[in-house]
């Protein structure tokens, strides 16, 4: 048991814990994500990590949007912090980033627009995701539902040192400011969404390097290859959208998720019309 939820079986692993399917006493099932505080973090850091965990979980639980996976409850049992989340169907968009598995351009634009709108809602509630990437966006083609998951989890260990030295988050999708001074705002999420869009459209990342230092330098200071050069049949209007989304300075990007969503839908009408 975690709180009132009875575990049914393990469904996966998280970077510092596990994922379980659990029975909701109110009916249906939930997904439990755990954070092994006692075993994964140094004793001197556990109090701060615990504080961050529950602060982020409480902030995420206040979000009510069809494009955001609901956080239902959080707690701690025997040194393991946990959060109960809505059990959603579908596949992470990371399954559609290989060059031979790309989705149609119009579908990618609509999905990204929905994600941008969901981020706009969260940002207006002063909640920043910090780890937007295809793996954290789930889409169900049967119900046509898209949901962003794992709000706030990338922030949990910002000041904590894990026993194994594991670094959470995905450098390839981080914004320049996240990798330089660590300052994060809504524009940081939109940059990461731009990286996500680029990969979903082209099957490659806009910033690449053989070394971690080279990758960070590329994200911070080097221009990306326009998507029309990375994929022959790409409309140049997408070059303009991604050029803005991936600008190095936060103030030069889209002003908010609603503006980015509007640009994506206008582009979709041009591409498909």
Summarize the structure in words:
The protein is α+β, with helices and mostly antiparallel strands and 273 residues long. It has 2 domains: 6-86, Phosphorylase Kinase, domain 1 (2-Layer Sandwich), CATH 3.30.200.20; 91-272, Transferase(Phosphotransferase), domain 1 (Orthogonal Bundle). It has 9 helices and 8 strands. The strands form 2 sheets. Strands 1-2-3-5-4 form a 5-stranded antiparallel sheet. Strand 7 and strand 8 form a beta hairpin. Helix 3 packs antiparallel against helix 9 (257-272). The longest helix is centred in the middle third of the chain and has 20 residues, at 105-124. The model has no long low-confidence stretch (mean pLDDT 89).
- Average pLDDT for all residues: 89
Give the name of the CATH superfamily of the largest domain: Transferase(Phosphotransferase) domain 1
CATH class label of the largest domain: Mainly Alpha
The CA-CA distance between the termini, in Å, is 53 Å
Query: How would you sum up the major sheet?
Result: 5 strands, antiparallel
- The domain tally reads 2
Query: How do the strands line up in the largest sheet?
Result: 1-2-3-5-4
Q: What's the count of strands?
A: 8
DSSP strand content: 15-25%
Tally of helical runs:
9
Provide the descriptors you would attach to this structure in a database record.
8 strands, five-stranded antiparallel beta sheet, globular, alpha+beta, three-stranded antiparallel beta sheet, single chain, Transferase(Phosphotransferase), domain 1, 273 residues, 9 helices, 2 domains, Phosphorylase Kinase, domain 1
């Amino acid at each position: 048991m975690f709180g009132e939820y009875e575990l049914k079986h393990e469904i996966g692993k998280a970077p510092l814990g596990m994922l379980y399917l659990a029975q909701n006493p109110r009916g249906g099932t939930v997904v439990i994500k755990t954070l092994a505080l006692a075993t994964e973090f140094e004793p001197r850091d556990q109090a701060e990590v615990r504080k961050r965990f529950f602060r982020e979980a409480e902030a995420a639980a206040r979000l009510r949007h069809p494009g955001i996976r609901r956080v239902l409850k959080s707690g701690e049992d025997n040194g393991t912090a946990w959060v109960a989340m809505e059990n959603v169907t579908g596949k992470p968009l990371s399954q559609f980033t290989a060059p031979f598995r790309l989705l149609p351009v119009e579908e990618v634009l609509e999905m990204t627009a929905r994600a941008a709108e969901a981020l706009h809602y969260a940002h207006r509630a002063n909640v920043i995701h910090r780890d937007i990437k295809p793996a954290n966006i789930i889409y169900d083609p049967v119900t046509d539902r898209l949901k962003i998951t794992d709000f706030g989890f990338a922030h949990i260990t910002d000041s904590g040192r894990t026993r194994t030295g594991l670094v959470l988050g995905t450098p390839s999708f981080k914004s320049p400011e996240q990798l330089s001074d660590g300052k994060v705002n809504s524009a940081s999420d939109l940059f990461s969404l731009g990286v996500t869009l680029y990969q979903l459209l082209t099957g490659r990342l806009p910033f690449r390097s053989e070394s971690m230092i080279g990758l960070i330098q590329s994200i911070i200071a080097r221009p990306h290859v326009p998507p029309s050069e990375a994929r022959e049949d790409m409309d140049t209007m997408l070059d303009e959208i991604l050029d803005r989304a991936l600008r190095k300075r936060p103030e030069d990007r889209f002003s908010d998720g609603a503006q980015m969503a509007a640009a994506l839908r206008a582009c979709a009408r041009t591409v498909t019309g």
